[in-house]
Design brief:
Length: about 110
């Protein structure tokens, strides 16, 4: 296989895995919660763009270091990171629920 073909295959697989990662439930919940607070399509688009850029740069930096140095991410760190994501999602969900209560349900009485 030619080096160009290998590179394109690698980039294509990376793109598909990134797309799958972006469409995971935790990402959809977090992004939709953040976007629900934006007043316009343009503001939502800007948040989505910067979210994507931040994710991409972080994954490129950390992934490059992990691959280049052959680092194995410890199970304990993975557990702590996943727990942090869970707490963040709970905070975002609680914030949205409180906002919905204040603006919609509480305003109806």
């Amino acid at each position: 296989m030619a080096p160009e073909t290998e590179l394109l295959t690698l980039l294509g697989v990376g793109f598909l895995l990134g797309l799958r990662h972006a469409l995971d439930t935790d990402h959809l919940a977090a992004v939709s919660t953040v976007l629900a607070e934006r007043p316009s399509f343009l503001a939502s688009g800007a948040v989505g763009l910067w979210w994507g850029i931040g994710h991409t740069l972080t994954l490129l930096l950390v992934g490059s270091i992990v691959l280049a140095w052959g680092i194995r991410i410890p199970d304990e760190f993975e557990f702590i990171a996943e727990s942090g994501v869970a707490v963040l999602l709970l905070v975002l969900g609680g914030t949205l629920a409180a906002k919905l209560y204040r603006e919609r349900w509480h305003g109806c009485h």
